[in-house]
Write a structure and sequence with these properties.
With 487 residues, this protein is α/β, with parallel strands linked by helices. The protein has 13 helices and 20 strands. Bound molecules: iron/sulfur cluster (2 copies).
């Protein structure tokens, strides 16, 4: 798919690769309004939204069609006006080819929106109000993780440094770079709002040194603010949270520690733009920039696409597939997931659609070369983790710190045996989360049972005490009666 070079020396963080960029920065185009928009109620790992519309309802652009269902959930808003034609199971963007309940919106072509509530002076609003607005606008991390932004901005610990991630280190993807060129001022405003919410002393926008136009645009937009624009080396995966922090500050976040515990928060540059839109313009998150690229597509484009747009519509906007198209990947070549159909809709986390001309190769046995460990930026032992994952030895996976795998794909790329290591790690991570949830539920059930037993014991003890008291009173009465008789 692309060539890579081994890094000659350790620069800032361990492992990593220098990858061919294959990036084409294009002007952002608007695709045609699709006839149908599809919204899965499944958001990400065990996170769902709850539909608040029913079949036959008419909705306007920006209207909430599903509310947050749980602490790590976010609402979903209609990206155009129309009628809810169905709530039914459809294929969704998931590595296992999952079908989940989706709200289907038949657009009416009018694109009528609910009135927005702009706010020009965000500093007059409390940090809690700003966070709530971000939550109500349905904003999640747009770099691919899709973690609720309001939740991330509610750090239990003081944050000294906000890092806006514009590194975009994965090959082929150029949506953030295109956005930085066209909307640098808005990104700076969004970053200032996030900095204000966090009360962070520093705000740094990190961008790879291979993006001079975007760098200059951000630099001139940031002149009157205290935001620093910092170039970082074009090494994959510089855009990983821990790797980026290490590159910028020299601070290595220990394994099993979260970055906020060390006073850092990272946000994607697209998320900064979404925050600007939500707070200043009062607009919910209904669209995003997405790169459509790869040797299997006739024209590479960056599109401002409505969330919920079926992939086939975006493919059409790029003049369709080439005759060599073989594989459809959501995300980049390193971290993306292969999809089974272009009927699937894009979601908030969709930063790229890569149409590849190469099919995955048949894996061969591991030859224990150790290359995967050399390139791992998390300093893990991928070949060992692979053995444990295959053997379903989940405790060993946990002991070998599988949770620290950032799923960067470096090990996959260098593996001479073409073993799909990351795929195995994703499954194993899912199992670990499942096991942890089961353990938590078992602990809750145990606690509930113990509390019930204690309550029973207490009631029994109280009953016995009352009985004893009554017996003592009767004895006392009898003794008094006997005494009276004797007198
Ligand atoms: S995918 Fe995970 S194990 Fe493989 S190199 Fe990246 S962090 Fe290491
Ligand atoms: S790179 Fe592949 S073949 Fe080499 S040790 Fe790792 S898993 Fe085995």
């Amino acid at each position: 798919m692309f060539k890579f070079l081994w890094r000659k020396k350790q620069q800032h963080f361990s492992g990593g690769l220098i990858l061919e960029g294959h990036k084409q920065v294009t002007a952002i185009e608007e695709p045609e309004l699709p006839q149908e928009l599809i919204y899965p109620l499944f958001l990400a790992a065990a996170r769902y939204a709850a539909a608040c519309v029913k079949v036959g309802d008419t909705v306007l652009k920006g209207q909430v069609i599903a509310t947050a269902d749980g602490p790590l959930s976010t609402p979903i808003h209609a990206a155009s006006s129309g009628i809810i034609s169905a709530i039914e199971k459809r294929l969704i963007a998931h590595p296992s080819g999952l079908s989940e309940n989706c709200i289907i919106l038949q657009t009416d072509g009018l694109d009528k929106a609910i009135p927005s509530e702009p706010c020009l002076d965000y500093q007059q609003q409390s940090r809690e109000v700003l966070r709530e607005k971000i939550q109500q606008a349905g904003i999640v991390g747009l770099g691919g993780a899709a973690f609720p932004t309001a939740k991330k901005l509610n750090s239990p610990q003081a944050i000294h440094s906000l890092i806006i991630n514009a590194a975009e280190c994965e090959p082929y993807i150029s949506c953030d770079e295109s956005l930085a060129i066209t909307a640098a001022k808005e990104i700076i405003q969004g970053s200032l709002i996030i900095q204000h919410i966090l009360q962070a002393h520093h705000c740094i926008i990190a961008i790879e040194d291979s993006k001079p136009t975007a760098y200059s645009a951000l630099l001139s937009a940031a002149t009157s603010s205290n935001i620093q624009i910092q170039k970082v080396p074009s090494i994959y995966p510089t855009g990983g949270e821990k790797q980026l922090i290490q590159v910028i500050s020299g601070i290595k976040i220990p394994a099993q520690k979260l970055v906020f515990e060390q006073g850092f928060i990272c946000q994607n540059i697209g998320t900064s733009f979404a925050v600007y839109q939500a707070i200043i313009l009062g607009l919910p998150l209904t669209e995003r920039i997405i790169t459509i690229t790869g040797a299997g597509i006739k024209q590479t484009k960056n599109l401002r696409a409505r969330i919920g747009t079926p992939i086939k519509n975006l493919i059409q906007t790029c003049q369709g597939y080439t005759e060599h198209a073989q594989q459809l990947i959501m995300g980049g070549p390193m971290m993306g997931i292969a999809l089974r159909s272009d009927e699937i809709a894009i979601i908030k986390a969709s930063n790229c659609l890569l149409i590849d001309t190469i099919k995955s190769q048949t894996p061969q046995p591991c030859i224990r070369c150790g290359d995967c460990a050399t390139v791992c930026p998390a300093e893990l032992l991928p070949q060992q983790l692979y053995w444990y994952s295959r053997a379903q030895q989940w405790d060993n996976c946990a002991e070998y710190q599988l949770a620290d795998c950032v799923e960067c794909g470096c090990c996959d790329v260098v593996c001479p045996s073409k073993i799909p290591l990351v795929q195995a790690f994703r499954i194993a991570k899912g199992e670990l989360v499942h096991k942890q949830k089961q353990a938590e539920q078992a602990a809750i059930a145990k606690k509930r049972f113990e509390n019930q037993q204690q309550r029973k014991l207490k009631i029994e003890q109280e009953k016995n005490q009352k009985l004893e008291k009554r017996k003592a009173a009767i004895e006392k009465m009898k003794a008094a009666a006997a005494k009276r008789k004797l007198n």
